[in-house]
Design a protein that fits this description.
Largest interface: A-B, 34 and 32 residues
CATH architecture of chain A: 3-Layer(aba) Sandwich
Strand content of chain A: 15-25%
Order of helices and strands of chain A: HEHEHEHEHEHHEEEHHHHE
Number of strands of chain A: 9
Oligomer: homotrimer
Family (chains A, B, C): Belongs to the Thz kinase family.
Structural class of chain A: alpha/beta
Catalytic activity (chains A, B, C): 5-(2-hydroxyethyl)-4-methylthiazole + ATP = 4-methyl-5-(2-phosphooxyethyl)-thiazole + ADP + H(+)
InterPro entries (chains A, B, C): Hyethyz_kinase, Ribokinase-like
CATH superfamily of chain A: Ribokinase
Number of helices of chain A: 11
Keywords (chains A, B, C): ATP-binding, Kinase, Magnesium, Metal-binding, Nucleotide-binding, Thiamine biosynthesis, Transferase
Helix content of chain A: 40-55%
Strand order of the largest sheet of chain A: 2-1-3-4-5-6-7-8-9
Radius of gyration of chain A: 16 Å
Protein name (chains A, B, C): Hydroxyethylthiazole kinase
Distance between the termini of chain A: 11 Å
Chain lengths: ~260, ~260, ~260
C-alpha cells in the first residue's frame, strides 16, 4: 500500500527546517537554492572550529563527501557526533566513495554512526557496502537494480534507510523496497542534482520518519525535474526551471508520483 | 531632504570598481555575477598568502563572515589592515554573528578597525552591538525597527554607517536614519542576496561616501528585485532576472526608489 | 588551410571525457555545468590527500590558479605530476598570474611541466612569459595582438600550445597562429567564462591534439556566446542560455566559426 507523501511536503513548508550541509563546494549553490525553493533553509558552515557548534541550530544534517576539502574532512566527524548526541537526523551522501581511499575510510566509519538515510547512486551504494569498487568520478557505472542487494545489506547492518538514485530511485529499510518512478535525463546534465536530493532528504527527515522522508524527497525532485524539462531549452534553462518547480509543485503533485513496492 | 542616488550608480558604471570579496563560499557566484551586472568587477582571493597582496589592486573590500573557511579566517584580518592602511573603504557583513563564538570574536574585533559600512540583518546588528544573541543560521529573528537602537549605537561607537536589511532597509550614521522602501520577498528565497547587497555597498563605497553608498546599494538591489519578480515564475527564474535587472536598471530607476528620513 | 573542428566536437560527445578541474572556487558551478552541457564530465576534488589519486580516473586535467585556496596550492603540483606521468593532457590557466608573487612562482614552475595548452588573457600570457607585469585582478589590460610575441615565445620554450583570449582568440604552437573570430561582449559580464574555456580546452585535449583542441574549444564557446546573446535580456539570462547553447550547438555549427591563419 502506498505511503501518502503529501503531509511530508506540507510539513517542510509549514515549519521550514534548517538543514546544515557539509558538502561539495561545486554544488553548494544549487543545494542552497533548491532547499530555499522547497521551503527549507540551508546553512553551510563546515569548519571544525564552527560546524559542530552551529549544528545546534539545525533541524537536520547533510554530510556529502563531495570535493571533501580539508575543512570538511576535519569538520564532518565532530559535527556528526553533535547531531547524533542531540538526536537530530543526519543523511550520508557518500559521493564517489569507491574511487579514493581517504573518502572510503571516512564513509565506512561514518556509516556506523547511525545515519537516518544513506543516499547515493548505485556505484556508491555498492562500494560503501564493500561489495565492489567503482564509479567514475561521481558517476555510477552500476545499475540501480544491481545495487539492491548492497542497499538492503547496508540498511540491515546499520539500521538505516538506503536510497539508491537512478532511472528509478529505490528506497529500502532492509525489509521494504519501494521504487519511485519520476525524474528526467536532464537531471544528470546539471551539476549537483544528486547533492540536492541529499539535501531534500535531510529536510524531509526533520519532519518525517526516514523512509517516508527519502520517498518524499525522491518524488519531489523527480516530479520537479519532469515539469522543469517540459519548460527547458537545455540544461541551463532547466536548472532555473527546476528551482522554480521545487517551489511551485504542490504537496498533491508530489503525492501523485508513482511509488511501487518491489 | 532626499539624497540623489543617480550619481552613485553612474559613477560605478563610469569607472567600474574592483571589489575584493572575502566571503561565504556558497554565495560567491551570485555576488560575482551581481557585481559584474551592476558594472563593477569582483576579485575573490581569500588566503593569507595572497589576499593582502592582491588587495592592493582593489578599490573596495567586502568582508563577509559567511561560511568562514580556515583560509578566510586567516586571510581576513591582514587584508583588512592593508585596505585600512591604504585608505580604501571596506564593508563588514557579520553573517550569523550571533550564533557561534569564533565569528562573534572576529566580528567584534573587526568592527573596531574602521569599516566604512556594517551591513547585516536585524539579528546580526543586534548581536554585533552586544545587545542580544540571536538569529537562526543566517536568518534574522528580530525586526528591523527593533535593531535601530543597536544600529545607531554601533554607528556612533565605531564612526561607521550601519545598514540593516529587512522589509524596509534602514541606513544610519548614528545621527540620520533613512529607510529604503524597495525589495521583494523573492529576495529571501535565493541564497546570497544579502551577501550581494554587501558587495554592492562596497562597490558604491569606492565611488561615494558610505552613507550614500549604502542607500544606493539598497535601492539598486531592491528596485532590481521588484522588477525581476514581475518577470519570474519562481526563485530560479527570479535569480537570473535579478542579475539581468541589475544591469538594465538606469540610474534614474535607482534614484526613484522611495528613501525616507525616519 | 582551415582545420575541420567538427570531429573534435563529435568525439567529446561520443566518449564524454572526465575532466579533473583544480580551479577558482567562484567559477566551479559554471565550469561544471558548461562541461556537462558540452557533453563532458567534471570532477573537482582539489586536496593533496585526494586529487592526485582521483586524477587516475580522468581523461584530462585543468589547472586554473583562480582563487588558489590552500588546498589547491598543495594539491596542484602532485596532481600535475600524476597526469604527466600517465601521459594525460593537462591545461594551465594562469589566472591573474601578473598580480601576486605566490601564483607567479607557481605558474612559472608549472609551465615547465609540459602542459598541452596554456590558456589565458593577454595580460596573463604576457606576465607568464616574463615580458611584463600586469592585469587588474583577473582582467586583461593588454590587447591580444600585443600578447602574440609572448604567446609564441612561451609556446616555443615549453613545447606547448598557447591560447590567448580576447576579442579575437589567438591560438599558436609557436609557429602557426590561428585567430578564432567568435564570441560576444556578454561573455565578459558573467563570472567564469574564461575558466569554462579552459575546461573546454581540457575536454577537447582528451580527444584531439592540443592545437585543434584549443581551436575547437574557442570556437565552441564563442559560437555559443553569440547564439546565447541573441536570446538574452542581460547577463543573468545569458548565463543560462550559454549553457543551453553549449548543448544544442551542432558540430557543424562549431566548425562554421571563422578561423584564420595570421
Amino acid at each position: 500500500m502506498p505511503t501518502d507523501l503529501a503531509p511530508v511536503v506540507d510539513a517542510v513548508r509549514a515549519h521550514p527546517p534548517l538543514v546544515h550541509c557539509l558538502m561539495a563546494t561545486v554544488s553548494m549553490g544549487i543545494v542552497a537554492d533548491g532547499l530555499l525553493a522547497a521551503g527549507a533553509r540551508p546553512m553551510m558552515t563546515e569548519t571544525r572550529a564552527e560546524a559542530p557548534t552551529m549544528d545546534a541550530l539545525a533541524d537536520a544534517l547533510l554530510i556529502n563527501l563531495g570535493t571533501l576539502s580539508t575543512d570538511a574532512m576535519a569538520g564532518i566527524p565532530p559535527t556528526v557526533d553533535v547531531a547524533r548526541a542531540a538526536g537530530r537526523p543526519w543523511v550520508l551522501d557518500p559521493t564517489a566513495v569507491g574511487v579514493a581511499p581517504v573518502r572510503a575510510r571516512l564513509a565506512r566509519e561514518l556509516v556506523t554512526r547511525a545515519p537516518a538515510v544513506v543516499r547515493g547512486n548505485a556505484s556508491e551504494v555498492v562500494a560503501l557496502a564493500g561489495s565492489g569498487a567503482g564509479g567514475r568520478g561521481a558517476d555510477a557505472v552500476h545499475g540501480v537494480q544491481d545495487a539492491l542487494g548492497a542497499a538492503r545489506s547496508l540498511a540491515q547492518t546499520h539500521g538505516c534507510v538506503v536510497a539508491v538514485s537512478g532511472d528509478v530511485d529505490l528506497v529500502t529499510d532492509g525489509d521494504r523496497v519501494v521504487g519511485v518512478r519520476a525524474g528526467h535525463p536532464l537531471l544528470t546534465r546539471v551539476t549537483g542534482t544528486g547533492c540536492l536530493l541529499g539535501g531534500l532528504v535531510a529536510a524531509c527527515c526533520a519532519v518525517a520518519p526516514p523512509f517516508e522522508a527519502a520517498l518524499a524527497a525522491s518524488a519531489w525532485l523527480g516530479a520537479a525535474g519532469e515539469r522543469a524539462a517540459a519548460q527547458a531549452s537545455g540544461p541551463g534553462s532547466f536548472r532555473a526551471a527546476l528551482i522554480d518547480t521545487l517551489d511551485t509543485l504542490t504537496a498533491a503533485d508530489v503525492a501523485a508520483v508513482r511509488c511501487e513496492e518491489q
